[in-house]
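[step 3/7] fold_predict: job queued, chain A
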Amino acid sequence: MKKLKGEWLDLLKTLLIVLGVFLIIRTFLFLPIVVDGPSMKPTLHNGDQMVVNRFIYDIHEPDRFDVVVFHASEKKDFIKRVIGLPGEHITVKDDQLYVDGDEVEEPFLQERKEHMPSYQTLTNDFDLEQLPGGYETIPDNHVLVLGDNRNNSTDSRILGLVSMDKIIGKASLVYWPLDRFQLIHD
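[step 4/7] structure written:
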């Protein structure tokens, strides 16, 4: 009887340790998220389940084209792609991204652009000054984000620039559904 009681205590201790490790990982390192809406198609689809790396931006700042999750409001988190970084001026003209006046390719949009009618654009023209806030350059600790589905995305063109303290983390991996399993890359 004592042996059985000891085995149950060992099992309970093991379960508590596993639960504690799980909570630490989930709270500080990785967070599961479900994509809600079409704004990141074709990269991410509505209902995709993914892992967000919560600690990466404690190590370094976001890079251009990182896919990030951020608090858009107190009740809603959004998933978008970082397009502009602090100190930069962003313009989109004739479906071409310009950073500080230099053309920058967006390879993740190429396939979509190729399948669009010639009279249609994926991204309407804009300058940074036309966005909420009217900035000439992106201020420190802020980024400009856009959805990959530019015609159907609530992003910096509407919300304004995103403060770094609103960013939860970087999207790392789609794990469900299995046929969409993929690492998220730039």
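[step 5/7] annotate
The longest strand covers residues 167-176.
The chain has a mean pLDDT of 82.
exit 0
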